[in-house]
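BACKBONE GEOMETRY TOKENS:
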Amino acid sequence: MPSRVYKIIELVGTSETSWEDAARSAVESASQTLSDLRVVEVNKLDMQIEDGKVVSYRARINVSFKYEAKEALDR
């Protein structure tokens, strides 16, 4: 089996309704420009508060995807 390499990036998604929607938003946005997404790790959850009320949820995630070397893409 050939060896594979994966790249990991950090993203922050936001939502006015939930942490799950915030994480989903980040993954869906990443999938528009990255291919072969593999694993998502949720690293941190927080909320933005204004006047004592929650106004948005934020999810900081790491997304891994298959790394394609430039030489392989040029073939």
Observations:
- The mean pLDDT is 90.
